[in-house]
Each structure stands twice: as C-alpha cells, then as structure tokens.
Amino acid sequence: MSFLITGGKSQTGLVAARFLKDAGKNVVIASRNGLVPDGYVSVKLDWDDPSTLEAPFATGQTYQGVYLVAPLGLGVVDICKNIIAFIDVAVKHGVSRFVLLSGSMVDKAGEYGVAKVHQYLEEKKLDHFALQPTMFMDNFLLTYAKGIREKDVIETDTPNAKIPMISVKDIGRFAGEALLKDEINITEMKVLGPELVTFDQAAESLTRVLGRKITHQVVSSEKVVENYVSIPKLGWSKAFAQFVVVAGAAVNAGSEERLFGLPNTLVGKETFEQWAERFKSSFAPST
Questions:
Q1: 84 in Cβ contact with 117 (< 8 Å)
Q2: Is the pLDDT of residue 259 over 80?
Q3: pLDDT band for position 77 (50/70/90)?
Q4: What mean pLDDT is predicted for residues 256-278?
Q5: Hey, what CATH topology would domain 139-162+194-261+269-283 get?
Q6: Looking at the domain covering 2-133, what would its CATH class be?
Q7: CA–centroid distance for 114 within its chain
Q8: For residue 129, what are the contacts with CB-CB under 8 A and spacing of at least 6?
C-alpha cells in the first residue's frame, strides 16, 4: 500500500513525501498538472475539477493514508465540497486515515478555509488528524523576500505581533508522523515554532544571517494589501489580500502569542534564525 500526498508540489506536501519515502514507504503525489519531483509517481487530481476525484484510484493503486492539502484563497470554501466528495471516494477505495492541513486561525465550526472538511471528518468518525499551524516561516520567501532583496526592508502593519512561527520542514514532518502513527487519540493540534518572534526580531535575525542591515518598517494596511497583490507568485486577489490583512490584525492583538506554551500543541525544532540560514541565498540583493 502507498500514501497519497495531495496538493502537488505544495511546501509541506513535499516534505511529508520525503519523510515517508525515507521511512521506506511508497508515495504517490497528486497534482493538477502532473509536475512532481523526480523519483515520485504522480496522479491527476485537481480540487477545482470533480471529474478527477477518482483518478488516483484508476490504476488500482491502494492507499493507507492521504494528506489533504487545499489551495490558499477565498475559493477554498467552495473547494471544500470537492475535497469532501474525494474523501467519500477514498473511503470507498479503502483509505483508512486522513491528515488535514488546516490553520491555527481556522475554526472548524466556522466557514473559512477547510473548516467544513474538518467538520466532515469528525462527523463521519473517520480516522483523522488536523494540523493547525501558525504562520509559516517559509511565507517570508513569498511575501517579504522581494522587499528584503530590493530595499532591505520587511513591511508589515503588525508592529506588536509575536508569533510562534513554524517552518515547513517541521510541519511536513508532523504530517508524515501522523500518517504513520499506529493510533491517533488526539485528532487536532495547533502547530507552533519553538519561539515567539516579532517582525523586529525577524529583521535582526536576517541582519545577522545576511550580513547587512535589514529593518522592519510599519506601513499602512493599504500598503500591505498593495504589496501582496503585486507579487505574481502569490496570485492573490485584492479581496483575499484584504482578508489576510484583517486576519493579521488579530495576530497583532495577540491571537497567535496566546497559543504559545499551551498543552496539546506540536512544537517544531527549527528556529527562525536557523531557517533564515538555510534560505539566505533567497534574500540576496537584487542586481
């Protein structure tokens, strides 16, 4: 039997895939375009296209567990119905465990993100585990790297935010471990980094790692929205960028800080400065 990683080349999905492969397990990566790293089998699966939901099983492949990763954006709520339909297909084909990537601010009783998927896994009493990570350190590569490369500046509207930032490497490892566990008793956990980090402190860490002065500059919420929308790799609409800014206001008021030190949390190993050292080349000055 194999493990199915959905979400194609998603950050945490690739880490989970490598973790499972290193453990001697067969891994299949599902993607909308079939583009997966060398050494992995790929199958078609597009959350936007319900006609592809049976595709991972069309070759007779059987899966012990599935890692469910949804795309980020306002459309995720609508995509939930297709993810739920896929879960039904997977159960029909003998899948016994689901690990869901959610988020620390996603209330399973709410409407945003993959909340409805989380609800469904519980309602059906399926063997599952929901990872609820706080801010990814790796998001710096998407949201702040351009400003750091071009202006040596991190621009945010959250001067007071203290965040237990978590690396993708740790999240993916937790996903792989959850897929391999003999038994899951606690079915959801917040996923935190090992320290609280402010954006001022992140700038200080990057200064040490990069060998040049990086500063944190507080700007207006409108400027943050403008920055997000201007990054092609994000592909965010203005509406979604505005939503992220609203969520950031809660973080600035302490929503993520309050999670630090709570019981029944998963805590990663990698500090922000260790993460920055791994990715220092991504912040090299633009030429």
A1: yes
A2: yes
A3: very low
A4: 96
A5: UDP-galactose 4-epimerase; domain 1 (3.90.25)
A6: alpha beta
A7: 12
A8: 97, 98, 99, 100, 178, 181, 184, 186, 187, 188, 189
Which one, of 185, 159, 170, 180, lies nearest residue 133 by Cα?
170
Contacts of 50 (CB under 8 A, 6+ apart): 82, 85
Share of the chain above pLDDT 90, in %: 77
Say if residue 256 is exposed, middle or buried (CB neighbours under 10 Å; 0-12, 13-18, 19+). buried
pLDDT band at 73 (very low <50, low <70, confident <90, very high): low
- Provide the residue ranges of all domains of the chain, joining segments of one domain with +: 2-133, 139-162+194-261+269-283
Across 1-5, 30-34, 202-206, least confident range: 30-34
Cβ atoms 27, 17 nearer than 8 A: yes
